[in-house]
Specification:
Length: 484
Amino acid sequence: MPPNLVWFRQDLRLEDNEALLAAVECGAPVIPVFINTLAHDGQWAPGAASRWWLHHSLAALDKRLRQRGSRLVLRRGPAADTLIRLVRETGASAVIVNRHIEPDDAQTDAELATRLQRLGTQWLSFQSNLLFDPDAVRTRQGRAFTVFTPFWRACLSQDEPPAPRPAPARIPKPRQWPTSLPLNELEPLPEIDWAGGLRTAWTPGEAGAQRLLTEFADRRWRSYDRDRERPDLPGTSRLSPHLHWGEIGPRQIWHALHARAARSRAADARDNAAAYLRQLGWREFAHGLLHHFPQTTDKPMREAFARFPWRKDTAALRTWQQGQTGYPLVDAGMRELWRTGWMHNRVRMIAASFLTKHLLIPWQQGAAWFWDTLVDADLANNTLGWQWVAGCGADAAPYFRIFNPASQGETNDPNGNYVRRWVPELAELPAKWIHRPWKADAATLAAAGVKLGHTYPRPIVDHALARERALAAYQTIRKRNAPS
Ligand SMILES: Cc1cc2nc3c(=O)[nH]c(=O)nc-3n(C[C@H](O)[C@H](O)[C@H](O)COP(=O)(O)OP(=O)(O)OC[C@H]3O[C@@H](n4cnc5c(N)ncnc54)[C@H](O)[C@@H]3O)c2cc1C
């Protein structure tokens, strides 16, 4: 019996993996394959942190496959050509995938389906990386939703996503395995070991994802609605990199939370579950937007913003990247990002707002830095997040709503513990001053060992002046937009 190829992309798991299950159910031998297309991915090739993750995730996937009598074949090259070569080598009768909706992938899939048809090989595509099919969720006029609340309402009115399916117990192997690159050659680890912080913070792979989900679904979801804006508390699930690489599927999370909510006697159980699933809704929304508006990775959704008077300021960009802006919450977030490859959502919003509004630096430059440094760098979510903050995206925050990083810190990190952790030079400051050290008197600063301009920077811009400058910049595109 000729084998079937299962092409893994961002679905690096065995549980609830429709493509893999379909292949196993056929009864034919299965050849699981991952293709490193990095050199051909252009601007959106995975960044450094993502590549570190990918290395470990592939190792974990191979291990799980081996426990079931199979293994992962690793190849490198342009996706379509490499896959066709593998089909010819193995005589595969079908290539089976989970649908992946990044702009280049849709094109590659369409091209592959045609080329495979000519070879007499089937192309089978499943949907298990999203809860709802982005083509099925549309407005009454048949258009894509560009506002979140009606989008999510429309999703929730659809049939419930099917229950997740367990991993296959055994995976039939081919008579002969095709050659495979060693992992170290396919996706080498960085030569300079900058990834120590990442190693401490994360366990890439399906087992790490399931551990986090169990931890979250056993305890933390009960206070999600209350704690999710608090970067000083472990209030969120931290599942984002696992979701990005598909080490866990959204249906697994959906059903785990529904089951917990149904069993719980707590009055607010349903509210907490709904609040959490709504965040997964933002992920669905982001993927739908990328699917329907692929140009938005680089171009603002609201076209007027193409004329926004952004500033070119390499020095300020660097200061922001290094977490040296003099605004403690922004600096804490940027340093957390550098050390762990992750940043709390509320802090992402404040750091991104600071770059685009206080410094007037284009959102695309911030998105590029996040792309390189986040372990959860995700084209759909990152694009939505940056455009939302910059005010130029679908259902975006209004431009004139400009976060004050100091008062945001006081609200969301009330004791200053998040800042103390990531900006240790301010650790001895009392909570009252930790988010605005420039307001503290000389004696308080001296007692805390803080010397502004020496041990910690003074603010790179004054909040009130920066706010006025941002609003004035916004007026220039509003005026030009106004009807005459
Ligand atoms: C400027 C900016 C850039 C961002 N870039 C990314 C990115 O590259 N990759 C990424 O996964 N998320 C991104 N986000 C969204 C969000 O910050 C992260 O998904 C979240 O912080 C991940 O932590 P968590 O898993 O603990 O989230 P939880 O609160 O536990 O949420 C569960 C899941 O829901 C999804 N989710 C939550 N919030 C959002 C959101 N606002 N938009 C889309 N999906 C969401 C994520 O998949 C997340 O894992 C960005 C947000 C902003 C403001």
